[in-house]
Specification:
This protein is mainly alpha-helical. The protein has two domains: 112 residues; 52 residues, no CATH class. 82% of the residues lie in helices and 3% in strands. Strands 1-2 form a two-stranded antiparallel ribbon. Strand 1 and strand 2 form a beta hairpin. Helix 1 runs antiparallel to helix 4. The longest helix has 81 residues. It is rod-shaped, with a radius of gyration of 47 Å. 3% of the residues are buried. One of its GO terms (cellular component) is Golgi transport complex.
């Protein structure tokens, strides 16, 4: 809650209200019974064992109940005094929840659009990758086929030259050299 005058800080939290509220809070803070609860290193087990050893449990319980009752009354007075502010804040929270829900709806719609675009892009991309790999394999196969055709041509020419006798021997040697370079 914001606004008001005469605020008193309690354990790091702002308690604000009228002069009576501040007096009530000061009164509770100055009471030794409640000061133990405000310490940073408050331990329930230690406090309980000390209370049992001192045998003043009923007195302390009554004092704590009285303090809780005072705090409840003060809280009720603060809520009544700040009723309009609290309602305005609650309305503001509802408005923010509406805006948040609208933003979540828009984010979901945007995510759906991104997913659709992704599907439109990923499928063609995957096809292109597959076709590119297929084209690369076809190029290798075509290159091998060209070499095979060349080897067949050279081997047929070499056979013809070998049948021609000694006058074709130089041409046969040249064909054999080409055949060796092709392989």
């Amino acid at each position: 809650m914001e606004g008001g005058d005469g605020g008193v800080a309690v354990a790091g939290q702002g308690v604000q209200g009228s002069g009576a509220a501040a007096a009530t809070v000061r009164e509770l803070l100055q009471d030794e019974c409640y000061s133990d609860f405000l310490n940073e290193d408050f331990d329930v087990k230690t406090y309980t064992s000390q209370s049992i050893h001192q045998a003043v449990i009923a007195e302390q319980l009554a004092k704590l109940a009285q303090g809780i009752s005072q705090l409840d009354k003060e809280l009720h007075l603060q809520v009544v005094a700040r009723h309009e502010d609290l309602l305005a804040q609650a309305t503001g929270i509802e408005t923010l929840e509406g805006v948040l829900q609208m933003m979540q709806t828009r984010i979901a719609a945007l995510q759906g659009a991104v997913d659709r675009m992704k599907a439109k892009i990923v499928e063609p991309y995957n096809k292109i990758v597959a076709r590119t790999a297929q084209l690369a394999r076809l190029q290798v196969a075509c290159d091998l086929l060209r070499r095979i055709v060349r080897i067949l041509y050279l081997s047929q020419r070499l056979q013809g030259q070998l049948q021609g006798g000694s006058r074709e021997i130089t041409k046969a040697a040249q064909s054999l050299n080409e055949l060796g370079n092709t392989i």
